[in-house]
Amino acid sequence: MLVVEDDARQRDSIRALLGNDDVQITAVESGAEALAQLRTATFDCVVMDLTLPDMTGDALLEQMAEQEDVSFPPVIVYTGRSLTRDEEQRLGRFSRSIIIKDARSPERLLDEVTLFLHQVESTLPVERQRMLKAARDRETALEGRRILVVEDDARNIFALSSVLEPKGAKLEIARNGLEALAALERSAGPSGQAIDLVLMDIMMPEMDGLTATREIRRRADWKKLPIIALTAKAMKDDQEKCLSAGANDYIAKPLDVEKLLSLIRVWMPK
Amino acid sequence: MDAEVDATRQAASADIELPLLLDALYLKYHYDFRGYALASLRRRLRSAMTRFGCRTLSQLQDRVLHEPASFPALLDFLTVPVSDLFRDPSYFKAIRERVVPLLRTYPSLKIWVAGCSTGEEAYSLAILLREEGLLSRTLIYATDINPQTLQKAEAGVYDIDRVAGFTENHRRSGARSSLSDFYTAKYQRAVFDKSLRRHIVFSDHSLATDSVFAEVQFVSCRNVLIYFRRELQDRALGLFKDSLCRRGFLGLGARESLRFSTHAAAFTEMVRDDRLYQRRDDA
Amino acid sequence: MTPALPSRIEAVVIGTSAGGIDALSVVLPALPAGFGRPVFVVIHLPRERPSLLASIFRSKCAVAVREAQDKDPVEAGTIYFAPPDYHLLIDEGPSLALSDDELVNFSRPSIDVLFESAADYYGDRLLGIVMTGASHDGAAGLDAVRRAGGTTVVQAPDEAQSAVMVRAALERGPADHVLTLAQIADMLKRLGGEAR
Prior knowledge:
Strand content of chain B: 15-25%
Helix content of chain C: 25-40%
Strand content of chain C: 15-25%
CATH superfamily of the largest domain in chain B: Vaccinia Virus protein VP39
Shape of chain B: globular
Strand order of the largest sheet of chain C: 3-4-2-1-7-8-9
CATH superfamily of chain C: Methylesterase CheB, C-terminal domain
Oligomer: heterotrimer
Largest sheet of chain C: 7 strands, parallel
Structural class of chain B: alpha/beta
Distance between the termini of chain C: 23 Å
Order of helices and strands of chain B: HHHHHEHEHEHEEHEEHEEE
Number of domains of chain B: 2
Structural class of chain C: alpha/beta
Strand order of the largest sheet of chain B: 6-2-1-7-8-10-9
Number of domains of chain C: 1
């Protein structure tokens, strides 16, 4: 998919909104770059702003239509300015849909693109439709996955590693919230390896689990990181607090390891 | 005459081949179909054989053992078929009328849709709970063993041709709003609202081999148990019993029941015709 | 003269659609109280309406009449109707199995699904009957009964309210017997008269 947007911040946010394992995004900032891309690569769809540094969106659309060496995939116009009826009509000839940027517009853009890509997929022959790359063994769901265990009780750490490591998961241990944040920082660094899931104890010295969870959620990159809180059984409102602090789920201690293992499978990103 | 003899011989060989194939799938991929009811399994495998161009189950076994890329396609034949939004509207109506008033009393809710296939039931419940004002405090676990159907479920995109039926079902379920409030339609597809998705976690879980993972107030498992033999049915019902809180609710498919289960005594019948049960206090 | 059936027959499957209730009203009441074999019936009906078939036929028949329930053990001398919106299959035991797998020939329940699974289980001890109907469902199923060595009966097309289904079945392969409803009823009565 090609994104044509001159504002770097918006380019990034569109990329974050639409990109995933199945959607590859090329982002450019000018009309000339867009034309160059369309000459060399094939795209399923173009998302285009109308205000570009070197030409208007209209002009870009017209050039795409006129130049024969340029491919012309379906276009979704995504613009910050309101359009006159005339402009809308003119653009309508070349584009699938027009979305005016607004508070709710990211959702609509996502919907439009999702629907569009599904259409592309469903017209492919069955063999070429998105099948999983290869068969997966259910037993290997945790293999090579990195789990950050934030826990100060050595017995629990031992119990967790003795169930998770035989399944191939790599554990990182942090003794409190501060260490957890440091470990996540390291994992995001150039030599770090991404962490797939966090098990967070609530009662800890230095920085407790609720505070640590809130801190993690403040970072945009970690918004989707699954966090499972480990709570005390008796403390029913602990569980509410964990969820409102941003944990995805909770499990009561003492830990039933089989149950925890199943819960980790539930939350482990696919 | 030859053809008749041949057919009998083939049927007998298939009885030998079937358990071997199921063992192979388990050993190689840890997907366990050994507790599935045979009649449906046979029928599904027959379709798979046609699709793969295999004459016998042994050929199919050879293929799936030695060409791992063919396994996901086989899995599609073996897992829960697609459903409709608000399939059996009276079930959802009964949930609104009998279950929701009690669910309101919990500060936060967890619901487990076991065997969610492509997500229709999970979205139906999310829409119902949104209409009843409960979705904001609810987490729905929607689980299945087929990663491909989970992916489709997660996308929440359905053929527009199906939406008329969905809308009619929704209306008959005692709807408090229009189904169109919950989706965007274009290019012959409808995509369900992302704000519903935020309350659903779609994930891999096997009723045949995995354990309980959370305490929930409601388990909905419709038209999944009919594909299981009694022993596996019992295992699944045991998981439901163990994950339900006291007085938690269990919903089954229109033609399923607890009749043959060793866990029958742990539940009381709540709405007989719509197969809604409640876990006993002392279970 | 109605033909005699092989005495090895242990079970009967019947498939029908348009005109089927009238046809079944001739055939099923003929079963004698001591029929001694299960009879499985698929009739196409609107999918969403609760089926009243069992209660309609209960009063007309000398044998027990039930709507099939998943995992019920098969009992001899009982008529089982497939419930609306589910396929009915015969499983090990023998027991009944339901499925909500996709429609077959635009139908659920489908005659083919019942007949094929019954042929798997009963082999040459099965009697398959296809009667009036407006779809092609049943043709492949009856073929499966034939290939497993079972006995096949098709209602005479001239007599059928809607002949599409019976013609499709006959085009797929020859039936052992092509009979009127009265003859089918008589044949089943005689089969029931034989000790098992």
